[in-house]
Amino acid sequence: MTKTWEQLSLIQPIVVKMLMNSIAKERISHAYLLEGPKGTGKIETAMQMAKSFLCLQRNGVEPCHTCTNCRRIHSGNHPNVYTVTPDGLSIKKQQIHELQEEFSKTGLEATKKIYIIEHADKMTPNAANTLLKFLEEPSSDTTAILLTEQSHQILSTILSRCQIVTFRSLPKDALINRLQKEEVSISLGNLAAELTNSFDEVLSFCSDEWFAQARTLVIKLCEALEKDTTSLFFVQEKWIKHFGEKEQLQLGLDMLLLIYKDLLYVQLGEEDRLVFQDQKGLFQSFSYSQKRIVSALFNILEAKNRINANVNAQLVFEQLVLRLQEG
């Protein structure tokens, strides 16, 4: 979906103001690092920057979105805009070499060249050192845009050569207010807004039947855990079928974390902070101690880490359920 600078300013006003001023004054850095949590508009901003740099009919700082360059950037096939993404779990040295080779070619359509590196923190040490050499000899017609959620994992020597642009999480209240205008269910909206800072992603969650069913299954799992004897049967019959992919299971675990946080809020008498507001009566009926809730939160986080480490997801989850059952 095409975003304008005005639309992006609703998400990241400080970032957009700074970038628009730089573009207006033609003070473009040779390298930018866009850092911040997932869903805060980094990739959309990088694409908007590329359009503003290369647009043939720019109106002030706003690209036209309709010229050949804008359309080709939007579709991902402009020869002067090169994007690098992780190959598997990392960005490899060969990928940076291919970027350098691509940019050394002559006869490209415009003088300005832009490369975007997504998840720059996932570069291997060799890839990072290769990129550093590229950054150390900046060309006046080349702009690097690095994106990361974890800038602390990037070489300090790379950071020192970039203009760092920090993206802030969109306040939850702002997300909820925008969702209400879209007539999104409050129960789904509250949950989605806890899982992502991206308004587009929240809307996508709330319009997906899978997400609504996932919310229901997480609540039913908690009820099964309370009854002790039915939880493993529930996992095998219902849960595994619905959360079949790794990313889906991680999302399910995130929802489970939020439920246990809600149980803690009930214990502390802070019901106004509940994410699952419509389940307040159910949560009040549970007889969980604070110690058991804290233990559950720890075990869920540990399960998420094990799944990220590529341990068998179904086995990890079944072990988690047994631990949650035992308290």
UniProtKB/TrEMBL annotation:
Recorded catalytic activity of this chain's protein: DNA(n) + a 2'-deoxyribonucleoside 5'-triphosphate = DNA(n+1) + diphosphate
Entries under Gene3D superfamilies matching the protein: P-loop containing nucleotide triphosphate hydrolases
Gene Ontology terms, MF aspect: DNA-directed DNA polymerase activity
Family matches, as SUPFAM superfamilies: P-loop containing nucleoside triphosphate hydrolases (SSF52540)
EC number: 2.7.7.7
Domain DNA polymerase III delta subunit C-terminal: 220-325
Enzyme's top EC category: transferase
A Pfam family hit: DNA_pol3_delta2
Keyword NADP carried by entry: no
Swiss-Prot/TrEMBL keywords: DNA replication, DNA-directed DNA polymerase, Nucleotidyltransferase, Transferase
InterPro entries found in the cross-reference section: DNA_pol_HolB, DNA_pol_III_delta_C, DNA_Rep/Repair_Clamp_Loader, P-loop_NTPase
Superkingdom of the organism of origin: Bacteria
Protein name: DNA polymerase III subunit delta'
Natural source organism: Bacillus yunxiaonensis
Gene: holB
